[in-house]
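tool_call predict_complex ligand=pyridoxal-5'-phosphate
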Amino acid sequence: MLIYANGVWVEAEQAMVPFNDLGFLYGDSLFETVRINQRKPFRLEKHLERMQSGMDTIQMESAAQLAKIPEILEAYISRNNLDSALARIIITRGISKGSPWRSQSTPAIYMTSRPINKPEDWPVKVVFLEEKNYPILRFHPAIKSGNYLGNMLAKKDAEDAGAFEPVFVNRDGYVTECAIRNVFFIKDDVLLTPSLELGVLPGVIRDTIMELAEKRHLKVQETLIHEHDVPEMDEAFISSTGVGVLPVTWDGYQSDYHHSQILSEDLQNVFDSGESYVT
Ligand SMILES: Cc1ncc(COP(=O)(O)O)c(C=O)c1O
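tool_result ok
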């Protein structure tokens, strides 16, 4: 496997990040996980838009670096002969020059990938965790920064508890998202997902699902969902670039996952087509 490490193509085992890269030192970085279907990136434009929005928020000036990504990704797919995969694009503030918070560095790009693995269970189990117990920062607009410590600790706790993924509940009792996925519910034939104002990540697959739902004439609401209302939901699923639509359950919860199954199949068909757009 060849890795792209800031201008150099190198075998994964030999790839290195400089010790004074600000992403390594302070988590001063952003990343995207892009799905490769049939050798083509899925909705790369949406990932780049999200990265651009993150760069604007953290004042990382790098239009020139961002513009290079499609070409680097194409070379990455071709050099590694990738048919399907999850490609990870990382952009850091670069190598520290002068004061770390006023560094005059050029942002650095890294690219790596991993295979797409389908979970064995269907539905998978989730646990609801209070996000105040984890170092998780939420602001609007959300950024996909390299600071995933809270997400990773919660994911580990969820797995230790026999679950696939945690679903976070914020200090006000509202459901936000998962460690590395968005969450959806269905109630009375309406598709519900937590509003972006809560600081949840605008998932590329979250958007795609809402578009697919509208095509199915399912009403969609981005809203506030209180934890007290969760047991009454007709269906629940999580979403991400890696898993697509994945129905979920928790202790005592049962559903027929009627709409979830349809949306899961619709999304899989989009992935199988190798096309980027559903609208
Ligand atoms: C916190 C969080 N929420 C949601 C998602 C899902 O985003 P996407 O649909 O773009 O994969 C991710 C993906 O990494 C994530 O880390």
